[in-house]
Description:
This protein is mostly helical. The chain has 11 helices and 8 strands.
Amino acid sequence: MFMLGVTVSDRIVMLRSAAFFILLVGLSVLTVVACQRNQVMSDAKIDKTQYVTDGYQQILEKHVHDGLVDYRGLAHDQKLLNGYIYQLGAVGPTQTPDLFPTDAHKLAYYINAYNALMMRKWLDAGAAENDGTESVNLLWFVNDLWLVDGRWISLDHLEQRMIRPVFNEPRIHFALICGAISCPPLLDEVYTAEDLDEQLDGQGYAWFKEDDSIGLDGDTLLISSIFSWYMSDFESMGRMHGVLTKYLPPSHPKYDMLVDAAQKRKIRSMHYDWTINQSP
């Protein structure tokens, strides 16, 4: 069905987005019997009176460089990562609601959880010995179950059921890192309720400073597939035109052409590189 006021490029974007979600749903249905619970053990003691991020903060400061992850170095500090993930199983907005009184507290918790679990998954997949050519396995998002806030959930469930429809915050797509090189840069600090708004905006600015985050082919705007998959989430920001006018540096040599293409909705997705987001 075609809708009035929807351009051909919009239809293409919607079809691509639908195809992506159909792929994930299909993978989920076909592999449900193969779901794997990732039991992360730690000798750390859990104090349910507080949400502790000190160890995770150390990891991010030490092993995230220019938005990429030093998995070889991270492997030596896996005990710290395990301690944080172990805590996630017992502490969270449902299990310990007093620690997460606002939406900002909850969203920061979920973003931190997603990114920490993705790093742990890469370690489990041998990233420390990786030569930098391995790629994300899409089955990880639906097959691998993690204990978060008292529930066994997949990363796909965390994003699609617990974050996107609940918070209606398009900037999460600047912050949730899928472990691939085409993802936005990983922030080298823990997300916090107090700084969340500034951190999410900072991620948007940082992403559009990357040379391969956006481009032009003639008068057609080339965008990350993330925007194509989740374009509906960016309606509140004015779609790509609103995103670019907010986050693209005006000093960009092709600023006017890029913004003009976005306004005219002459848009096409770029190839998405699923290669590991490993620092050199």
